[in-house]
Amino acid sequence: MTVTIVLISGLLTLVVVVALVLPSINSPTVPFGVRVPARHAYDPAVLRQTRIYRRRVLSGGIVAAGAGAVIYGVTGETLLLPLSVLVLVGIWYGCFFLANNEIRAAKAAGGWFEGVHQGIAVDTGLRTDPPRFPWLWLAPALIVTITTVVIGVISYPSMPEILAVHSGAKGVPDRVAAKSVGTAFSLVFVQLGMTALLVGIAAAIYRSRPDIDPAHPVGSSRWYRQYMSLGVKALLGLVAMIDLGMLGSSLLMWTGTLTRWAPLVVALPILAAVVVTLVVLARNNRERDVGERDTGLTHRDDDKNWRGGLFYINREDPTLMVPRRFGLGWTLNFGNPASAMLLAGVLALISLVIILRFDG
Question: What is the pTM of this model?
Answer without folding.
Answer: 0.83
